[in-house]
Amino acid sequence: MTLVYKILPKTLWDEAKAAGQFTGAPIDHADGYIHLSAAEQAQETAALYFKGQEDLLLVGFDADALGPELKWEASRGGALFPHLFRSLSPDEAISEKPLALDADGVPQLGLS
């Protein structure tokens, strides 16, 4: 099983659970797809885009179960990143983990 991850504020995920679907964070809406990261990409994503943000979650999904709307596209440094071109059901999540910040304010994912 290949896992992909979404880093997001807990409040957004709580709203998605209440609504029964996650349509994306503001950056996802702007770009037209839900940004996800593979395990080896997620820590760098956390450092680049979520430094200093508290109350974050790391939500994991089975990439194969997301279906054909999951596309691996070139992004940061030419690496292929998982982009989801549909909303997510909270029921599709296979893991949820609260994230702590290190001394520099970088969320620590503990995936390695």
CATH class: Alpha Beta
CATH topology, by name, is: ADP-ribosylation fold
CATH superfamily: Protein of unknown function DUF952
Structural class: alpha+beta
State the distance separating the first and last CA atoms: 16 Å
Roughly how much helix do the residues carry, as a percent range? 10-25%
Query: SSE string, helix = H, strand = E?
Result: EHHEEHEEEEE
Description:
The chain has 112 residues and is an alpha+beta fold. It has three helices and eight strands. The chain has a single domain, classed as Protein of unknown function DUF952 (ADP-ribosylation fold, Alpha-Beta Barrel). 24% of the residues lie in helices and 35% in strands. Strand 5 and strand 6 form a beta hairpin. The protein starts with a strand and ends with a strand. The model has no long low-confidence stretch (mean pLDDT 95).
Key attributes of the depicted protein:
112 residues; alpha+beta; ADP-ribosylation fold; five-stranded antiparallel beta sheet; globular
Quick take:
This protein has a single domain (3-103), classed as Protein of unknown function DUF952 (ADP-ribosylation fold). 24% of the residues lie in helices and 35% in strands.
Give the topology.
Elements: E1 3-9, H1 10-19, H2 26-31, E2 34-35, E3 37-38, H3 39-49, E4 56-62, E5 70-74, E6 80-84, E7 93-101, E8 107-108
Antiparallel strand pairs: 1-3, 1-4, 2-6, 4-7, 5-6, 7-8
